[in-house]
What does this fold into?
Amino acid sequence: MLHAFTRNYNDLSTDAGFQFEYFCDCCGNGFKSSFMESTTYEKQQKTERFGGFSSALGSLMGGWGGNIGNTIERGANLVGNNMSSQSPQWRKEQEQSFDAAQAEVQGLFRKCPACNRWVCETDCWNEEDGLCVECAPREASYVAKARNEAMRRNIDEAAETAVVWQGKLENRTTVCPNCGKPAGTGKFCNECGAPLGTQRCPNCGAQVAMGLKFCGECGTPMQKSYKCISCGFENPPGTKFCGECGTKL
It folds into this structure.
């Protein structure tokens, strides 16, 4: 039975040899032991090569020699089957290799007396306090982490109170002057197709919907001509004096 210094490990062994990987309980980094070849597997390979050679030799010498070759080859196959089912010899080699792997790798780990975890010496061990970095964080690293967390909180708080838009949220419903139904947001009514623009009353300056013939504020006709009676110049709607000759309109 394998007795590991830490339960956090993987057995990478095969029929050909033995190798183990041990992991840090803090950061999860892994360390592999050196690969150790199985002597049982090496003997099996030699037996298989000898059996194949004897079989070939037996085919040349005749039936008697062939029987000898077949017998040796069957013996090699039996050894191979024992290997695939992990024979006692293989298990004994595995235990010895496991002890050697632990002696090789265990020096890269430290056991924290506070939490009883095995952590890697390089990244997760606080040499000054004799504890893992989770039980006793390194001062410089902890200060930098706390400062960065405080900076993020300050940024989030400033973002919560920042004014990034000062407009007004309005929801206006345009009513078509022709059919009296909600007309939508386009230039023409969604119901009847009437134009939705406005024009200024030439008398009072009120905004009058397109298509209306009279101002709703003062009753002035909206189709009044602003053509100068003196010079015939066409003036813009709402003009009180001709822009060409100055005649009162």
Notes: The chain has four helices and eleven strands.
